[in-house]
């Protein structure tokens, strides 16, 4: 089992397979993707070595992220590879949802269990303003299609001052009949966008107090759960989740590690640097990689330092998929 010096065990791997994305979200890539080409990202054999090593060390959940992972033509092959690795019980991905209506069944048949879709507004105009893409209707059809084929669906929306207000109520109205988990995520500062953070950051704590007053009840966390606090209500088909990275003790339940598309291990989303493990991936030696990963866990800190304004090496969220 992968365990750090603070006794935290890591059952959950977030694996980025590309940094590329064709959306232009204001809080991530407002000028579009301008990074390295696809040829520099992890190959399928490297991913196989990585996933096998993590699974043998107790990882039971993998989330395939980007950038936008569906931009890789071999994305279904990567899903199947992870699904067929002994020890992996839950397989998820995070997507902007642009290909979801078309490909949900393909991903399900390849072995995907869950999809997280980024939807920052239910107003088509605001959605286009935030993402640079006028595709809200298509993405909502994708959510319906994902539910239809049997995928568990979570929807991510970033809390922004300029787009909050009545939108929170619109999202709750949507949950009355829509069986998804809607996770409100506090905007996190990154190296490229400190000014946007200062202009738009909105604490989720008042919203948490509000939904508790409305009768929403906390859901018990599972071993491989992500960072969200989830809540349910008998009058709603869907659930609400809150991801509050600036809250006290946010890091105490950390159970996830991240590997970037360039083969660097990030012990935290906001680590000061990524640790290059690609030589072990290229060599294909699973046992050597396992031993190396266990040594590296001793370097993990007790917390991120976002509350001190330290964003580490994360210049934008497309690097690691959040």
Low-confidence stretches: 304-309
Q: What order do the strands of the largest sheet run in, or round the barrel if closed?
A: 7-8-9-6-5-4-3-2-1-10-11-12
Share of residues in strands: 15-25%
Strand count: 12
Topology as H/E string?
A: EHEHEHEHHEHEHHEEEEEEHH
- Compute the CA-based radius of gyration: 19 Å
Kindly report how far apart the N and C termini lie.
Answer: 24 Å
Label the overall shape. Answer: globular
Helix run count? 10
Largest sheet: 12 strands, mixed
- Helix/strand/pairing category: alpha/beta
Q: Could you provide a short overview of the structure?
A:
The protein has 322 residues and is of the alpha/beta class. The chain contains 10 helices and 12 strands. Residues 304-309 have low confidence and may be disordered.
List keywords for this structure.
twelve-stranded mixed sheet, 10 helices, single chain, 322 residues, globular, alpha/beta, 12 strands, 17% strand
Topology:
Blueprint: E1 12-16, H1 44-56, E2 61-65, H2 75-83, E3 90-95, H3 100-110, E4 114-118, H4 124-131, H5 136-148, E5 152-159, H6 166-175, E6 181-186, H7 194-200, H8 205-213, E7 217-218, E8 229-232, E9 239-243, E10 256-259, E11 264-266, E12 275-276, H9 278-283, H10 286-296
Helix pairs in contact: 1-2, 1-10, 3-5
Protein described:
With 322 residues, the chain is α/β, with parallel strands linked by helices. It is 30% helix and 17% strand. The protein contains ten helices and twelve strands. The protein has helices at residues 44-56, 75-83, 100-110, 124-131, 136-148, 166-175, 194-200, 205-213, 278-283, 286-296; strands spanning 12-16, 61-65, 90-95, 114-118, 152-159, 181-186, 217-218, 229-232, 239-243, 256-259, 264-266, 275-276. A twelve-stranded mixed beta sheet has the order 7-8-9-6-5-4-3-2-1-10-11-12, with helices on one face. Helix 1 (44-56) packs across helix 10 and helix 3 (100-110) packs parallel to helix 5 (136-148). The longest helix is centred in the N-terminal third of the chain and has 13 residues, at 44-56.
